[in-house]
Amino acid sequence: MSEDATTKKTPGLGGISLNFVPAAGDGSAPVSQSVAAATGESVDARVVIVGSGPAGLTAAIYAARANLAPVVIGGLAGGGQLMITSDVENYPGFPDGIQGPELMGLFRKQAERFGARVVDADVERVDLSRRPFKLWAAGVEYRAQTVIVATGAEAIWLGIESETRLRGRGVSACATCDGFFFRDKEVAVVGGGDSAFEEALFLTRFASKVHLIHRRDQFRCSKILKARAMAHPKVEIHLSRTVEEVLGTEHVEALRLARTDGPGEERLSVQGLFIAIGHRPNSAVFRDWLVTDEKGYLRTDGPTTATDIDGVFVAGDVDDHRYRQAVTAAGEGCRAAIDVERWLEAQESDARAREAASTAAEPRRAAEATTA
Ligand code: NAP
Fold it and tell me: Is the model's pTM score more than 0.85?
């Protein structure tokens, strides 16, 4: 991706370029800054969308085009997981692929073009006890008739410096996204759960060999996946080992492994490293209000994106631990915006019906009062 004045290098992301730059409303100030400035300490909205990944921004595009004037509280590090993904080759519509940050920049530009206002702030606290719902971010109170929670999830990483440095340069947390780049190469997968086995088996389609590295000598994955992996000629399992360092300057070249069942270190030559040790949904600020599963994923209530709080909807990876793709998150964002639109329409037509009934009853009450 070419770098221009609006593209910044972000430390901590292995030098990956970010291009998640808000479109300037009048060419002078970013729309995101003008929201709080124009409205002071509080903002009223028909829909507030929390999160600016594919789910949040797709919800924003649909809500904006439905004249709902959505406010997106997008997070300080907005854009979601694609901001730390380099080549995206499986998002439909980009036959030559696109860089993750560039794709998210386009999502945002499209949402802003239709009037969505994106605020670069983190939601610190919410009150979903009554409508309007209240959300606080960067000192501003947002009062929302409806809320779409699209805060996503993040892969859990090993937490070693070399893993961060080489992320996007051979280190990945998504085989579906990046496996294709490792045709005829040796790769390693870390983890002992269903994700690690699924990723390892998926990678056998491309890689010449897949090394599965697990810290214990027992797996927690399902028996069937374990049996498939163990029987696969391309899969080699390394038990009781941890990855201490990812070796390589520009790209992954090898791993330094330590044994957990005794002393000793090993070097394993691979060109790719897939971390599959779980995901963490970004649901913390909503956990006191919405139903979650044991891992913190939000739960929807029925076949739509509605939750058990009337007027609150969810979309994307914060409730999806199965598919976790940009395109599925975008699809959910679309569903959530349509659910919000219908919900508001139903509320407004109920309110109109109540008002009409009360207007019709007024002359009768007046006549009764005169007779009495
Ligand atoms: P998981 O079940 O929590 O497994 C995480 C694995 O990573 C564990 O083996 C764990 O080791 C290991 N691990 C955790 N932290 C580590 C670290 N710092 N260093 C090295 N290894 C570490 O996560 P998951 O596999 O992502 O699955 C999440 C949920 O989704 C599960 O309920 C799973 O069944 C489900 N899922 C289902 C499917 C499917 O049905 N096809 C596919 C994917 C996921 P220990 O075992 O030593 O703790």
Answer: no
